[in-house]
Amino acid sequence: MATTSRRLRPKDFEGDAPVVARALIGAIVLIDGVGGRIVETEAYDREDPASHSHSGPTPRNQAMFGPPGRAYVYRSYGIHWCMNFVCREDGHGAGVLIRAVEPLYGIDRMIARRGLEDVRLLCSGPGRVGQALAVTHAFNGMRLDQAPFEVRAASEDVEVVVGPRIGISKAADVPWRFGLAGSRFVSRPFPKPVSLRA
DNA sequence: CTCTTGATTCTCT
DNA sequence: GAGAATCAAGAGA
């Protein structure tokens, strides 16, 4: 249950983006009681050409340069709301994109918002997560350790898989995408590990 | 100012 | 697999 694991505080988000992104796999995220287990994340930071923060603070990305443990929400393709968790305590412009969630709580509300009943498709993508959890710009900059957010650490060790990020043209080969091994709720399959011998 | 490009998803072919 | 929906940054004139 969500109440069995420790609630994450800002200090838990002070690490580098890839470290936090990996640590968030298996964590529970809820907005107004609706959500589930994080099964896919991607890391971004200022040195990364693919990151919104790469060219410094702007009105849109200012949350990324603020305190860690807060949300950075942006509009994607003029249609979708995508949510990041801001990390690092030094205003570096680092964050973790929440790409997929395994629906566990408030599934009926997610179904209503998404207009689908296939649980597997409710939160399997950053735009889908935004719609299922009713994310909007109103959440931009808000603390993740206060209502309506509830973020809890993974209650047990989980096996994490890594791969290149999705939907970007710059630094597309950087392996900063993390996923829960074997999860059916990721947005896309992870590349199979390179076999050393045929 | 105009032009291009997206950290995407859905629908139709 | 291709195209649309739809808008805010970012780049360039």
TrEMBL record:
Source domain of life: Bacteria
Pfam families in alphabetical order: Pur_DNA_glyco
Keywords in alphabetical order: DNA damage, DNA repair, Glycosidase, Hydrolase
Annotated stretches, region: Disordered: 44-64
GO molecular function, one term: hydrolase activity, acting on glycosyl bonds
Comp. bias (Polar residues): 52-61
TM annotation in the entry: none
Assigned EC number: 3.2.2.-
InterPro entries hit by this protein: Formyl_transferase-like_C_sf, MPG, MPG_sf
DNA damage among keywords: yes
Similarity comment text for this entry: Belongs to the DNA glycosylase MPG family.
Protein name: Putative 3-methyladenine DNA glycosylase
Organism this protein belongs to: Ramlibacter terrae
